[in-house]
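hey so i finaly got around to running the thing on TMEM62 isoform 11 from Pongo abelii. pasting the sequence first so u can double check i didnt mess up the copy paste, my clipboard has been acting weird all day
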Amino acid sequence: MEKTKWLDIKGNHGNILLYVEMALSIMSTVLPLATIRSSV
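ok and heres what it spat out for the 3d tokens, dont ask me to read them lol
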């Protein structure tokens, strides 16, 4: 189920999904740093 679903998404919106995933991972690392910097 998971594999076929992923393949379907990859076939249609693979690049968009990849960019969203990268953006989320970047934000999750950058946002905490930004909040720490602004509070200090």
